[in-house]
Write a structure and sequence with these properties.
Elements lengths: L6 H24 L6 H25 L4 H29 L7 H22 L1 H6 L3 H18 L12 H9 L12 E4 L2 E4 L2 H24 L5 H13 L1 H12 L5 H23 L4 E2 L2 E2 L5 H33 L1
Antiparallel strand pairs: 1-2, 3-4
Helix pairs in contact: 1-4, 1-9, 2-3, 2-9, 2-10, 3-8, 3-9, 3-10, 3-11, 3-12, 4-8, 4-9, 6-11, 11-12
Length: 328
């Protein structure tokens, strides 16, 4: 792939990104409370501001369409990342991750996926297309999870000890039964063991990479410049963690959230399966033409589902309050 910048600019960019990552890690290590909605809003704006400054630098210092390509790529990657957030919510819920540890889990998982995404970017679009079969696996898993989520009792607390993946990994890895705060390693009977956080981090990292099989080809359609593709992905991913806490904070009081998430997960799963079928050149089943589900359609569906879920939840909450008042 081509690149409009010199190796020196590449090196400076990587150093700056590493500095931001280290600074983020220091902030997480010092924070002794859960991330609030106000924290999330502030940091979302900070990362969007960084992307804006970077785009301004490209417009000023690079000729041609580099700035336009970056903005288009950044918006595309950030928009497509909305799908990831709801998968992250399910992973966190399924493994009952402690609230104080969620920031660290997301941070490490996203940094891990950033490194793996870089491999995909430099491997090129052909390598990504060859791996499109993974969409079948993730899509099927998301549909299965969506059905489970829709059928389960929303008042019942999930028990991560019954998670089949964790039970299997317990047989082959030294994983402790319970969490130890935000620690990745703990001691049980004087024996050093991994905590379940390691599994959650791996799950989030791999989910993010699989979603890259969808988003990276999209940005390849906008630009062929490796520098633009890498920086757009990096800045979009680095702001993803804060966006997660913002959305979670806005939705945590929505009583029918699990039902709304099940609909969204089912939609995302079907979308991935349809994209895998397109990748296998199966565009039709008899007289039925498989639709192309674009970014705008996906975002509109998610927004519509969350809107309906929120409205219905508020109606139920208000009805329960009225009944409680009438009973007094």
């Amino acid at each position: 792939m081509v690149s409009v910048v010199s190796p020196l600019v590449w090196a400076i960019t990587v150093v700056v990104l590493l500095a931001i990552i280290v600074l983020d890690l220091v902030v997480i290590a010092r924070r002794q409370r859960t991330v609030t909605t106000r924290d999330a809003v502030r940091w979302v704006l900070v990362y969007i501001g960084l992307a804006g400054l970077f785009a301004a630098g490209l417009f000023i210092f690079l000729p041609g369409t580099a700035g336009q390509e970056f903005l288009a790529g950044y918006i595309t990657e950030y928009s497509l990342s909305v799908d990831n957030l709801f998968v992250f919510m399910i992973i966190m819920a399924r493994f009952s991750v402690p609230a104080l540890a969620q920031d660290k889990v997301l941070y490490i998982g996203i940094v891990l996926s950033l490194v793996l995404r870089a491999v995909f970017i430099f491997a090129g679009a052909a390598a990504i297309a060859a791996a499109s079969w993974v969409f079948y696996i993730l899509g099927g898993f998301l549909v299965y999870t969506a059905i489970q989520l829709a059928l389960e009792d929303s008042d019942e607390e999930p028990d991560f000890h019954h998670n089949p993946v964790l039970r299997f990994l317990h047989r082959i890895l030294p994983i402790s039964e319970d969490y130890d705060g935000r620690r990745l390693l703990t001691r049980v009977d004087k024996k050093r063991m991994l905590t379940p956080l390691v599994i959650v981090i791996a799950a989030i990292g791999m989910a993010n990479v699989v979603f890259a099989l969808d988003s990276i080809p999209a940005i390849f359609g906008l630009t062929s410049d490796a520098y633009i593709i890498f920086t757009a992905n990096a800045l979009a991913l680095m702001g993803l963690r804060q966006l997660y806490f913002l959305i979670e904070g806005l939705l945590e009081k929505v009583v029918y959230l699990s039902k709304g998430l099940s609909v969204i997960l089912g939609f995302i799963g079907l979308k991935l399966i349809i994209e895998a079928l397109h990748g296998s050149h199966l565009d039709e089943f008899g007289s039925f033409h498989l639709p192309e589900i674009g970014t705008v359609t996906s975002l509109l569906f998610i927004v519509a589902t969350l809107t309906v879920t929120t409205v219905v939840s508020l109606m139920k909450t208000n009805r329960d309050v009225r009944r409680a008042a009438e009973a007094e």
